[in-house]
């Protein structure tokens, strides 16, 4: 299935409906009259069920912490594989945990040996140095990379009943 164009609708806060084109880019059925009634192209999501699934089953991929309203596990990367509905979502993070995870993936070498001039895969540590990494951002990556794997500095307080 190729999604050349996606149109989404939210019905209250209960249902998320979107239309996905099955054809390749440039051959959109959205441009045809009556595309709204192509119900075989619709995708539906129940927002209360997603919330319940995250609360009961989803854990942060970095710290294994639970999803709470005050500290949601809802940050991820595009193209993340999907898990069956009876399992928690995979590769999702708390807001601060995704930053720590990315810092652990970033080359913070003092004098990196990269593929390109100052960016690319580092031959010394095997991590990736992004293009245009500023000194301030590099310093912040070093601070976050010093946090041990799987831990958080201080998780937000859990709100009772959240």
Task: Describe what this molecule looks like in 3D.
- There is one protein chain.
- The protein is α+β, with helices and mostly antiparallel strands and 162 residues long.
- The chain folds into 2 domains: 1-47, no CATH class; 57-152, no CATH class.
- It is 20% helix and 13% strand.
- It has helices spanning 47-56, 95-105, 135-145, and strands at residues 6-11, 15-20, 42-46, 120-121, 128-129.
- The strands form 2 sheets. The protein has a 3-stranded antiparallel beta sheet with strand order 1-2-3.
- Helix 2 packs across helix 3.
- The longest helix has 11 residues, at 95-105.
- It is flat.
- The two termini are 38 Å apart.
What are the main properties of this structure?
single chain; 162 residues; alpha+beta; 2 domains; three-stranded antiparallel beta sheet; two-stranded antiparallel sheet; 3 helices; 5 strands; flat; disordered N terminus
